[in-house]
Design a protein that fits this description.
mainly alpha
């Protein structure tokens, strides 16, 4: 069951990333940023699940990513930085009033988010 859940989360990560690209291409920048964050979030959940680490919140996911993978050197600070940026920006986009993302900000995160998901999948497959 655990492996099935991991595969499901990675599939969701890829699908959600594709949704983010689709929304970006259509100019829906806030929604695209939200989907970028969730694509990285789903991948991170898969990673934590693979290592039997339980979390109960988005902040907990961010914390465990740092403690279990960045501090230990399993994930570089540069790669993890993508998740942290997405975490913060998604919060602004979802909760701040009168806030809209600029195209350049979202565009700059498209490739790093894909690379983040790729790295997570690589670690899980080891």
């Amino acid at each position: 069951m655990k492996k099935q859940n991991i595969r499901y989360r990675l599939k969701r990560a890829r699908e959600t990333y594709e949704d983010a690209v689709f929304l970006f291409e259509r100019g829906s920048l806030n929604s695209s940023m939200n989907r970028l964050y969730y694509s990285a979030f789903y991948a991170t959940i898969a990673l934590l699940l693979d290592k039997n680490i339980e979390v109960k919140s988005h902040a907990g996911v961010k914390q465990k990513l740092g403690e279990e993978f960045v501090v230990t050197g399993k994930i570089s600070k540069d790669i993890a930085k993508t998740f942290n940026i997405l975490f913060d920006l998604r919060h602004h986009g979802d909760y701040d009033d009168l806030f809209d993302f600029e195209q350049e900000i979202v565009e700059r995160l498209l490739i790093p988010t894909r690379e983040y998901i790729d790295k997570i999948e690589e670690i899980i497959s080891e």
